[in-house]
User: Fold this.
Amino acid sequence: MLLNGLNLTDDEKLFQKSLESLRNVLLQPARSPVTSQRVMRNCSVLEKLAEKLKANEDKIARILMEQSRRPISACRLEVRRSVQTLEKTRDAAHRLCEPRAYDFSDALQGGHTAMSQRHTYAPLFAITPFNFPLNLTLHKIAPALALGIPFVCKPPLQSLELFTMLNEWLVEAGAPSESFAFYFASNEGVAKALERLPAPLISFTGSRQVGLQLKQKYWDRKLILELGSTSSALVCGDLPKWELERLSQELARSAFGNSGQSCISLQHLLLENEICEDLVSH
Assistant:
């Protein structure tokens, strides 16, 4: 389901109606425990969605380019990485789904066995950023799809066209339309929705400031926060001179690619004195 709630927060009746739709999604029963049969069935959705992304790579890349003003080559790379995200999620889900048996064969614990089985933690409310809208959203919702976890996802507001397509493709791939929703809303709308919805699991990628606000306000819920980094690079003085040109380009690309809007963009560059002047001149 795709719900555009951008203009609903000023009308309490319409807002309540939209919340009721989202509440129905989050109250869907989570499929727990995780079994191989269930994961196999759910992962077919990921496989079909990956095929859709491959078949529509150019179309998706052009939409991403118009929304983010990134080079078309970078947008195509995001589509390919999104396909890899789906494929790796599928493989990980298959590895994790089977019960694990433990055999205590030492003298002290001889004759005892134990078994562990994974259960889902659901439902999920996911909030995703604008810098890599497709791939970072799939990082959150692909595991939920594989394990049968109902979710509401608030994508970046610039990506309405992209997620309209993604919503259709998920339904075509076999994902139950009543078990997920893409919710387009302002920051105020998302805040009001989180307060009133039964979402015990919140996954957020974005600024440290907002992440800490969520942690403070929703201390009684499970939070998964990805708030960026303070990535550093150290260049030693014994770097060969012939490496300077290549390295300077890599450092510039890491620091300023996508206008620096990357969780792992270079933010601190440490140079030994012997190499500092030569590297800066490049």
In short: The two ends are 51 Å apart (CA to CA). The chain has two domains: 2-226, 232-281. The mean pLDDT is 84. The beta strands are 2-4, 100-104, 112-116, 124-127, 151-154, 180-184, 201-205, 222-226, 232-235, 268-271.
